[in-house]
Amino acid sequence: MKPGHIQLFRTALASALASRSRNLLSLDGFDRAGVLVPIIQARGDYELLLTKRTDNVETHKGQISFPGGMVDTNDVDIVDTALRETMEEIGLRREAVDVVGLLDDLPTPTGFIITPIVGLIETLPSLSPNAHEVAEVLYVPLSFFADARNGRMEMREFRGKQHEVWYYETGQHTIWGATAMIIRSLLKKIAKA
């Protein structure tokens, strides 16, 4: 995928996201969460903004994730959840994010249903990560994930079925689980754009 005019990319991606029915999930005992999947055109490539969670957070300690979190009763909708949580975690204001669309809901073994919100960021403002929640902010080119040599897959059981679990090693970080599945879903949509 070659970076080009971000508005052309936006239009094509929005069309790919809107061209099918989204998989909506509702599972008893699962909490709803929204994450922002921030795509930035920078340094000659489209990059994903990811965070490394601290060991202070309640769940997924030390893992690489997208900014986001659980639905709050004051949130208007799941997009509001993702944008609010992103602001709280890394200081990225909602005005800087152009929401393009939503990916399919994804259940996790830890009891969450995650709704990924795809957003483009044309000019990344300076960030102010919340030191209690975010140990590091990472920028990883989409081309890294698109290269099959950079990932590996294992089969694991979840809710009585076998599922693919992907792993990507980038520098000293391992990106896996729900985050890797969201990235794979995004890449499939980009391929259709």
Please tell me about this protein's structure.
The chain is globular, with a radius of gyration of 16 Å. The chain is built from four helices and eleven strands, in the order αββββαββββαβββα. With 193 residues, the chain is of the alpha+beta class. It has a single domain (6-192), classed as Nucleoside Triphosphate Pyrophosphohydrolase (Alpha-Beta Complex), CATH 3.90.79. The protein has helices spanning 6-18, 78-90, 142-146, 177-192, and strands at 31-42, 45-53, 64-65, 68-70, 98-102, 106-107, 112-121, 134-141, 151-158, 161-170, 173-176. The strands form two sheets. Strands 1, 2, 3, 4, 5, 6, 7 and 8 form an eight-stranded mixed sheet that branches. Strand 10 (161-170) and strand 11 (173-176) form a beta hairpin.
